[in-house]
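Holo prediction. Input below; ligand is 9YT.
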Amino acid sequence: MADGNEFSFRSPTVVDGGRIWQLVIDAGTLDRNSSYAYVLLCRDFAETCIIAEHFGDLAGFVTGYRPPSRPDTLFVWQVGVAPSARGKGLASALLTKLLGSGGCQGVRFLETTVSPSNEASRALFKSLARRLDANLEESAGFGAELFPESGHEAEPLLRIGPFDISKRRSTG
Ligand code: 9YT
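Structure of the complex:
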């Protein structure tokens, strides 16, 4: 399996917010949040977000945060990979690096929501759970009725854990 070696990884800064926003538009599969939302994430949640670059171009990102009421949990908001960087294991490498980073110290669960039609993202989290040797549970999450715009699918919740990332840091 590819391991993302051709990419360089780092936490984002505010100037990366607009680049992430552009990648989301180019990727075409994710919810298009405002550029302002990405700038905020890159300022206030930089430690639980990560980007990958390929010779300076943004190749992929993960945005996430630790919900204040559940700090042992990393909520993964979006995972995006540029069309030109697909098929190289980059999404998986981004998640592994993020979980192994200082911002995720003490994290034992990962939560995310993935729409039923997003097979690639579901497969990504299934394989992550396998690698972490952890359970993956699916629950109702957010029903489609919560999203006023037409055509927004339901967002079932995937919860992986518990896991102990400190035992796996060297594999990242
Ligand atoms: C893991 C991931 O990228 N989920 C997508 C959640 C949501 N539909 C969005 O923000 O695109």
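The first helix runs from residue 14 to 27. That is the main takeaway for now.
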